[in-house]
Amino acid sequence: MFGLLAALQLMLAPIVAVTPVLAVEGIDGGVAHVGLLFDLYSAGGVLQFVTTRAAAHGIGVRVLVSAPLALMLGSATAASVLDDMVSAAFLMVSFGFGVASIGTLINAEINRRSTSRSGISTSRHSRSSCR
Fold it and tell me: Which UniProt keywords apply (predicted)?
């Protein structure tokens, strides 16, 4: 299941990265500020430490994936309704944060599950070798 999510993440990441830029092209002056908006997208990616820290405190992956998705959808709605550069900037930061956070969380969950499976198989092997 998580292998499928990782593959889906790799396929959708370029689409998700370009979507906010296409959304702000309709905003007055949006094309002129694409460089600034991509900087904001990168700055949003740096904020993934928030979800990494929350995961370390034991908050579930489903909650941590749902929160960035809700933020991304909310900011996309605000950008389409307000149609100004402030909402476009918030859109880019939220998309950068969401894409980076979701990618980090999926990779961490894949690693955690593969580590727990390998730990189970080695403990069974060590029990049988002790007999």
Answer: Membrane, Transmembrane, Transmembrane helix
